[in-house]
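$ ./design --mode recover --in tokens.txt
reading tokens...
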């Protein structure tokens, strides 16, 4: 009997232990929360199916890409995120009692049946269109069967040079082009990528830009501390020819050569350059011997009527050089060591006018030499003050220049009352030309107009810091003074 009692007691205790363990296990549950995002954009994804192994509840993500699975028995699980068009993603998670575990899914698009975009159709400008502006918009059309995000690459080249411009990672079906070359034919092509398939190329389309307008005026503006060359037509419309990032000045146009020459900073020296009328094809002429003198702002050079050769100063020497940079030769050196600052070459090539001065810009002499370097005519000497601007008339019988009649001299080369003078080679004397100049201003950088009935020059206050203007006036004509271009200097009119 005692034996039966002992067995019954043991069975009862085992039953109690079993009931106790089951009760504890029933409370060992946890929670899993998470978020599903697009692997490319990291934007939340809605209606993504979430399931697990071992199996728990199946849920779907909300508008914020979030989900929650509650009352999961503790243990090791593998959760899966599924959505049509995307590669299913698995994440392992450990569920612990009374805790919340977090997981994040980044789903990538499935490429199994993904189709490439259509061939881009180039819409505007229309193929082979002409007279297009130098700033325009390129547009195209294209679709993607799977509504994938598309990016575009545009290749652009022209018939004027070998440059190929590539515009990559474009999001819109358009691009705005600026500062195209005048009178050029452009070829463009678009490539589209959906990030999955091989990029698709369009056909090549072409358009031609409008020809560069007819202009005759040249001048310089100061932009961000640099001299920048502009041109303008007779109506006053202006076109920028050189970059605002470069320092270029003293432009001179040659209609026979169809080129514009100018001075530019090149490293530690100044050189002569040429370019086309539209500002393209900039080439350096000088190299081993720079153009140099007492002050770079007051340096002047000249080229012959055909545009095949230049003459220019380098301190006390005058050089001749061909427009392609060859044939450099010294043709004159001042007998007294003074610097040559400006020069002009007569149209017939028989006379060269020189303005020489000391290291401070004073002690000025103007004289004329022949091509062999022999001094033939003394135009000015022995007068105090600054002198600038030499220009022969087309016949070579007159020479125009400016002189500060106040005779003022200082270390800043300030001028107080600069007026225009003309030397007549037949009469052998100089005389002032009345231009009705306002008191307290200077007339500088004078040149003849193309018909020589007028003069063109810079006028500015003698304070040295006020705005400069390009002005013209008739020779011997009262009340003919007219401002052509405000905020400009160093004019040329051919």
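writing sequence...
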């Amino acid at each position: 009997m005692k034996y039966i009692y002992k067995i019954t007691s043991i069975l009862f205790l085992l039953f109690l232990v079993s009931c106790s363990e089951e009760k504890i296990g029933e409370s060992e549950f946890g929670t899993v929360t998470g978020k599903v995002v697009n692997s490319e954009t990291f934007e939340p994804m809605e209606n993504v199916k979430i399931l697990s192994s071992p199996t728990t509840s199946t849920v779907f993500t909300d508008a914020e890409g979030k989900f929650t699975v509650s009352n999961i028995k503790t243990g090791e699980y593998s959760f899966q995120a599924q959505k049509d068009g995307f590669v299913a993603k698995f994440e392992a998670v450990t569920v612990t009692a009374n805790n919340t575990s977090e997981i994040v899914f980044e789903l990538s698009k499935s490429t199994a049946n993904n189709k490439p975009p259509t061939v881009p159709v180039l819409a505007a400008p229309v193929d082979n269109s002409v007279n297009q502006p130098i700033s325009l918009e390129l547009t195209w059309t294209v679709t993607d069967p799977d509504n994938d995000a598309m990016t575009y690459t545009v290749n652009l080249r022209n018939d004027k040079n070998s440059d190929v411009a590539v515009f990559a990672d474009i999001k819109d079906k358009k691009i705005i082009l600026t500062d195209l070359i005048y009178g050029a034919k452009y070829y463009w092509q678009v490539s589209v990528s959906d990030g999955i398939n091989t990029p698709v190329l369009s056909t090549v389309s072409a358009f031609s830009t409008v020809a560069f307008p007819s202009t005759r005026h040249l001048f310089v503006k100061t932009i961000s501390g640099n001299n920048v060359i502009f041109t303008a037509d007779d109506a006053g419309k202006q076109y920028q020819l050189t970059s605002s990032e470069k320092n270029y000045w003293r432009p001179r146009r040659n209609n026979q050569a169809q080129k514009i020459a100018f001075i530019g900073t090149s490293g530690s020296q100044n050189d002569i350059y040429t370019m086309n009328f539209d500002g393209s094809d900039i080439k350096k002429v000088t190299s081993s011997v720079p153009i140099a003198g007492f002050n770079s702002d007051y340096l002047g050079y000249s080229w012959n009527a055909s545009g095949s050769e230049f003459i220019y100063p380098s301190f006390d020497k005058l050089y001749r050089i061909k427009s392609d940079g060859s044939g450099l030769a010294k043709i004159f050196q001042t007998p007294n060591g003074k610097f040559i600052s400006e020069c002009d070459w007569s149209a017939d090539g028989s006379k060269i006018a020189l303005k020489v001065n000391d290291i401070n810009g004073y002690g000025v002499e103007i004289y004329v030499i022949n091509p062999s370097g022999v001094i033939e005519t003394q135009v000015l000497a022995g007068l105090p003050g600054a002198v600038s601007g030499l220009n022969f008339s087309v016949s070579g019988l007159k020479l125009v220049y400016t002189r500060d009649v106040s005779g003022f001299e200082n270390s800043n080369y300030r001028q107080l009352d600069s007026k225009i003078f003309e030397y007549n080679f037949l009469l052998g004397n100089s005389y002032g030309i009345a231009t009705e100049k306002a008191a307290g201003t200077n007339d500088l950088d004078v040149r003849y107009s193309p018909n020589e009935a007028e003069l063109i020059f810079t006028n500015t206050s003698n304070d040295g810091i006020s705005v400069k203007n390009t002005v013209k006036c008739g020779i011997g004509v009262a009340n003919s003074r007219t401002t052509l271009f405000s905020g400009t200097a160093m004019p040329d009119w051919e």
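exit 0
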